[in-house]
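The records we work with from here on pair a chain with its fold. These numbers are not coordinates but entries in a learned vocabulary of local backbone shapes. To see the layout at work, look at the sequence and tokens printed below.

. . .
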Amino acid sequence: MLAAMAGLLAIGLSSCREDEQNRALHLEKGTYAGKADKELTPEQQRELQARGYKQKF
């Protein structure tokens, strides 16, 4: 019984990934807390605009 409880405790403690540890748990409503997006290059902007034009009806 004690070994089973110790095993469950070990699994529970090791189940959190490293990138999930020490992250903010209380977020401000309406504010994006992630990393800033990279600026699109002019070529990427043109490609995105061309894809948008293809979707127009």
